[in-house]
Protein 1
Amino acid sequence: MRSSEGRGVGDNAGGGPRGSGPVKGGRRAQLEHTGLRHGWTTGACATAATTAAYTALLTGEFPDPVTITLPKGQTPSFALAAEELTEGAAMAGIVKDAGDDPDVTHGALVRATVRPLPAGSGVVFQAGPGVGTVTRPGLPLPVGAAAVNPVPRRMMSEHVAEVAARHGGSGDVEITVSVDHGEEIARSTWNPRLGILGGLSILGTTGIVVPYSCSAWIDSIRRGVDVARAAGRTHVAGCTGSTSEKTVVAEYGLPEDALLDMGDFAGAVLKYIRRHPVDRLTVCGGFAKLSKLAAGHLDLHSGRSQVDKRFLAELARAGGADEALAAAVGAANTGLAALRLCQAAGVLLGDLVARAARDEALAVLRGAPVAVDVICIDRAGTVVGRSTVR
């Protein structure tokens, strides 16, 4: 089952059809064009629950609604669905609203229980019922850690610090995140295959769930291309999410109306640009997603294509990997784990994937007068592979 947590938007958190106005381009305009209501990630819900619980622990009162600040500056408010204050602990719960997105966690109750720790302990995360634990390498968390991803951890830690400063706390706390029925819900995700056992992951890089509709999103991609062309843009970028958008802006200084939120729909971008060419297209996204494009998949959705480790092993061999390394790549838990193995051995798998993805894009373009380059990034936005322009 998919999750769209991590696809970012600009301002106007709250979604819904917009009125008429000047034609705009870029990823935010694409979202507005879909007319779909977006929602909140499990990471945003856990942050709101943590903020409410720690406030109650220090003051004796739960803020309801509780307001948080998301990574891009939006300040949504959340109503509490559960609260409990006991000696030495406070718990708050938020029901996740995924908007118009058919997210598997829509309606789930996300809870955070906050307990004080000795001075100097910092913020410690624990997996409660319904939240998984990492059991295999290759994920952005160490083995044994609670499956609370890095950005939600940062959001919760920052809000703990803010509450501590406001109400005289030390900020040294244990946060236990749980999700009612999370272990059951997780069976509909890829978590068990990735070695995340016992429940769900707490996800999200922007705090916002972008609503998913194949037809609406593909239509918004086409509109984005049209707007870029009308504005005279000769270089556009297809980005898989907000982190890749930041990367291409940093690399090339592209304006907002040259940025296309292609999400999982690489084929939609390439086929439309084939019919409506621009001089140059940069494709930027996560290494694992773009390894799917390199292998010939035009739909990068996790439910319809998977990272082919055997394909990565063949690329690694072509890049100089010995048989032992190629076998390790083929058996890796995730695409990221395969990349790390090759990086340690000096094999440039990221560049090899970027080059193969560029060649696949050119094949789909079928000779259209469009130059293409590809940039692969990791979860932190670090460039781990790139192709030349061709």
Protein 2
Amino acid sequence: MRLNASAPPRPTAPHRLPLVLTAVLMLVGGLLLALPDRAGAAVDVLISQGRPATSSSVEDSTFGPEKAFDGVSTTRWASAEGIDPQWIRVDLGPSATVSRVKLVWEVAYAKAYRVEISADGTTWTSLATESAGNGGTDDWTGLTGTGRYLRVYGTARGTPYGYSLYTVEVYGTAGTTPPPTGAFTVVAAGDIAAQCTASSSSCAHPKTAALAQRIAPSFYLTMGDNQYDDARLSDFRNYYDKTWGAFKAQTRPVPGNHESYDPAGAFAGYKSYFGAIAYPQGKPYYSYDQGNWHFIALDSNSFDDAAQIQWLKDDLARNTKGCVAAYFHHPLYSSGGHGNDPVSKPVWQILYGAKADLVLNGHDHHYERFARQNPSGQAASDGIVEIVGGMGGAEPYAIETVQPNSQKRISGPYGVLKLDFTDTTYTWQYVGVDNQVKDTGPTYTCH
């Protein structure tokens, strides 16, 4: 119910002012007591603005899920068109309580959807259900729910388009962690440029490059085997440069085994093409910072090089950032055709000892994510999250032997990793070249 209050009459004498104010305050207080639902609404606090958001898909990078939580009424999230179901999710922080959810739909609205809450992003409890939506504004009040993640899960579109929300406002009590700061996005992929061009419909790296550009990240990571088959300079120029080369200056690469096959000499084409981008410190391994994150780029072709190992130890000792991510070509653990590669275990031991958070790899041509584990492959709360992201454009490899702690495996659909970082957390999505989100990782807090 809307409470309408008219202005009180102007007092005829100054001494009447306190009496009039007292009367008005008593009237308003009495109305609020008589309308407990309205009184409760007065204490609702917006807790979703600026929080990390993910979604099942995006129409393109200009309609990302964060747009529904940015506090701007003219920006919006839009899913891919013509596909059910779709969802958008926000991280409210641990143990948030929710009392109200307000949705402002664009023309592409949901006819049927659920508002759900979850403590872990896996098991969901329904807070509200709509089966005959007609767009516009839906304001769900009187809700009772506790959890970390809230999502709007659309099951039936109201139009032939997708789902699109200008605003998702969640009210209640925020979790115990403050809103994250220093947010940025990174796109990552390995095993990229086969010897083909966009003139071939089966050529994948032009499609992954276009997807990577649509996401518009702060920078790009490549996890080796950037160019196939022998990574000659002429191959880089004829293939990789025509697609991923469009954002070469924003790319932080590492070499794979195929970069070492160059007839002109190991890494000759790689070094000539990338130059100081790949050798900023004069070596094929280097580090840099972004926000509260320290990134370490390593050459896993030479993990037996004592100089690189000592450099890694020294670099970690100098690090002052709170979160650490490393990336290199050969994964210690993989369920693909190449399988586990023990060459990476000594590096894992060093990273684990330094409380590193995340390792990104290529080599096996599939997507896979692992739960936190230690260098021996045992599940551990203080372990490292490993992601294999080898679907940048080379021919996919089948999943062969599923490894312990492997949580999700995808082989076939080409795509890239969209990694979202804050000063204290990280999460990611595996996005296919069809703009569909194939997998969403958990939101982890840095060690």
Protein 3
Amino acid sequence: MRALPLLLLGLAVASAPALAQMKLQTKAAPSNGPETRYFTAIDGLMDGNADVVLKETRQGKTVTAAVLDVCYPADKSSDRKDRFVANLTVNGQTLSGTAQSVADKQPVTVKLNRKQTGDSFEFRGQITIGQTVTEVASTDNSDLSEKEFQDNQATEDGITPQPKDFTDVSPESIGVRVKLDAATDFLKSLKGEAVEIGTSSLAVTCDAMRSGEQTINLTVDPEHASALLAKAKSAPGVTAAGWTSGVVEMDRTIRFAAADWRDGDKINKDKLATAIAGVLAKTLAAKPASATWNANTGKLKLVLKRPSAIYPALGLTQNYEVTALVSPDKPGSSDRLMLWVSSPTVSTSDDSAGAKLNLSDDSGSDEEGSEAKDDNGAIDALVKELKGQRWDADKSVWR
């Protein structure tokens, strides 16, 4: 999920007060009834790592109620978050209250003094979490209306439950949105499954803590994606599941007739791997060395080798590693397949008999551990071999 937009509450450590740099648009004239206003930021508080929302209910310029919502790193050694929500008592210009953090159950005490000058607001005071005291000294803050705040809360996880095809989403990439209290059981249900879980999606973000839902990113063989989605949708606590963006880039993708590349309802992966390797062998002037299909992700890893010209007398080997992915061109049954082929990754090794040179990848070298600048027209050669089509990004059609 995307992080909440940072619009500036500007809570700061006292030794280094943060000055808000952004000014928001002029707010509409207040009505006669209660009005809700927001301050949003992580500026300065907890070394600038806190995500803060202060909600105020006002009658005219008088604050009648306030809620402080702070999400922050639970410890410095991980991405794990904690959060507290404190209902604050309003006493003139003083906002104070207590709470308990959600994850670690730490006691929280808040005492802030609020000062308004025109459209600018200043906050000073202390926030104590457990034994840690944070001094707050923040000036020149602007607030948001209810509509402005809600507009800024919109998040997009890119889940598409029923895409018309795989031109905007990737056939191997699955997103599952699940309620936080059900996420652990859902993840445990994937043990033993032929699927990979994106570890970055395991971190519970501030957005997830506030919404109560977490999006888990999965990579699966496209031939098993529909079955995985059906299982996910029936799992307790799952609120959405579908395809998302992934490895496939349309400028390196081919669509072609499926008939010659299937055995029954299954893709003949060995036949296809042989065909891809044969084309790459010609375009890269290299010999196929290995072809391996990943049982979890459905990706094909091809390795091709040729003599390296970097130092001919040493008899070194130049290695080309290419990743490919094949799937139907849309969910469900289709008479066409899609093939994505990565740019080659190039490295150099000593494959000679006997004692060998130990070579290290050098990111500054075009020869080792780098993506090839030119694959000698491999995609066009594959289009010709497979009698396929390429994607026209300008017209959004296959050509």
Protein 4
Amino acid sequence: MRGLRAAHRPVLFDIVLAAAATFVEVGLLFNDGTDAVPLPIAVTVLTGAVLLARRRFGVAVTAVAVASAAVVTAAGYSPGGAPAVVALWSLAETRDRRVSLAVLAPVAVFLEIDNVCSPPVSIGAWVLGAYMRTRRRYVQAVEDRAATLEREREQLDLIAAQRERGAIARELHDIVAHSVTVMLIGVRGARDVLETEPRVAARTLEQVEASAEQSLAELRRILVLLRGREAAETRPQPSLADLDELVAGYRAAGLPVRLEIAGEPLDLPSGVELSAYRIIEEALTNALKHAGATLVTVRLFYGGADLEVRVHDDGTATGEPGPGGHGLVGMRERVAVLGGELETGRAPGGGFRVAARLPVGGRA
């Protein structure tokens, strides 16, 4: 329905414009007290009807409008030239500039010689039409550019998301590999003491069972990602135990950071700890690069079934990464893998805020 209404607007405008030009021209014909007669009225109405075709047949419509003025003048009347002026404006607004200029010169000369209207009027109508054409093309170019940039940004976000998923999958792969190694060692130890110390063997197997449950949860997360074929990194993955060192690094870089921990710390699954660490790291990086903050508050809240991570700066910038930056995309991917929630944006009291809720799930 919206498309139909948009299509009807030019038609309605053309009808109103043709009617207005006809009405003005008839008024100019008889404004000196001359008696109204059918011939000039009929010619003027016919010319107004021809104006409806101005978009498709601009040159022909202009010729008809000029010929109409010549006929009315030959009949002893003084036309105002409204249809011819509208035709010139429309020609400049819808046709190439070289075409409209080629038509303007003879038409302006003829209208002056025939005492219909002076050259400034004809030239002014053409200038207005040429300006509207230039303006319309400029607006269209801006809209096309904006659409292209939006498509490019969507593609870059998609590529960044795929890369981040690959990185997350590799990190979780390392976590699962470590858990499997621990389980293997535990099973071997339990087997060795099974006959001599069955209680020790039972406790060991319980630990292996808990580690296996956590590994299964991590494996389910890996299955929802597009994992690349690059080799996993051999360095140990960071955890929340490394948070003090991370904050100290940003303080040394000139970013004042305050770390707050609320609630009773829990033994978290490695994937949750790693994701929380990466979210804090990315939020601090954005604050350092983009926010211009004088203080950044990092808050961890252990709430039983969830771990809440909040990073709030008092900067005046948006905190969003600049062109080519995809830190928020990576945060969203990490939180989505864990089944959590993420909120980013301007804080009510000023500054930029990152708030993530990470389900703890099974304990490590």
